[in-house]
Amino acid sequence: MYNIINFVISFGAIQGLIIGVFLLIKGCKLKEDFFYLALILIGFAAILGRVLIIGIFENQSGFFINLNFILLISPAFYFYAKESSRDTKSHLKFNYLHYLPFLIINLGYLIFNISLKNSIDYQTHQINIIKVNDGFSIIYFSIYLYLTYKIIREHKSSYTKAVYQLLNQLTFIFFGFFVIWLIYIFVEWIYFYYTMELTFYYPMMVILAVILYYLSLQVILKKQILFDFQGVTKRKTFILEETDSKKILDTLTLFMEEKKPFLDSDISLITLADSVGVNPKTLSFVINEHMHKNFNHYINDWRVEEVKKRLDDKAYDHFKMLSIAFDCGFNSKSTFNLAFKKATGLSPSEYRNR
Predict the structure, then answer these.
(1) Most exposed: 17, 22, 157, 266, by fewest CB within 10 Å?
(2) CA atoms within 13 A on the CB side of 143
(3) What pLDDT is recorded for position 232?
(4) What are the b/e assignments for 285-303, b being 16+ CB within 10 Å?
(5) Region 235-352: CATH code
């Protein structure tokens, strides 16, 4: 039975590592956001690999027990969500500060094992370190999971459909993993005092292996949708006649004024392009070239104008500010305040009380 489980775990770790390394190389070369997805796969594969190594080298596994890959996975998920958004996407630049805890803590473990391996109090020190490590990891993971969820919600319309679906699935997976992980930590603390046998962790590792199978399958099957290296039309090679651009812009402006599609908080570039009858890339080009804004900023400026109209109308005096903002298409207080301040130079309350 254990041989079958070890095979499942081993295969999951190897598959995740291979796909992760492939994406890592491509991500570094092309400077794309899936570099961070690669870190997620490699991090989960390393967790599985660590369990296998502990099982093989049971008497010499102290260092491997303490290795912490949660500190690698947590910021990687956040930056994958951030860099996949058209609103916040930038030239890939590794954010070293967010990974310092991963480097510092694992380096500290290495020094601890080298210097105190033969100490009489080694076991006591090790348990204390694991306690601190678990507590810090829970807080670290929780913060990044919340920040990731927040950025996905705020920039929902700026993702492609495939990437948005993957991000939602990853959020569900991460939350489920977090809950199971908390249960194991609680049981270790209360009932076993860090003496739980390795086999008790097998159910969690099998679940993690299945997650790696799934993510690897997404990369393989949806490569052309999620990681299309050649399919993105570059701005410099996209040409549109000035008369055509003006015609599209006039049609778009008229549609925005009459139908007010920006009142829908779920509006996306694709749905708006379909309504206007143009290709999404063409519409994006027109907005960028002639309005000097990205899609979300363009939509939010229309929403701000609608909010201003209502604030200037005495019929809305008894409405709360946030209620007006949500009615005008905003789905986040912070996004509304930022967009309003940027467009008017005043905060919403300052504008209302002027």
Answers:
(1) 266
(2) 10
(3) 41
(4) bbbeeeeeebbbebbbbbb
(5) 1.10.10.60
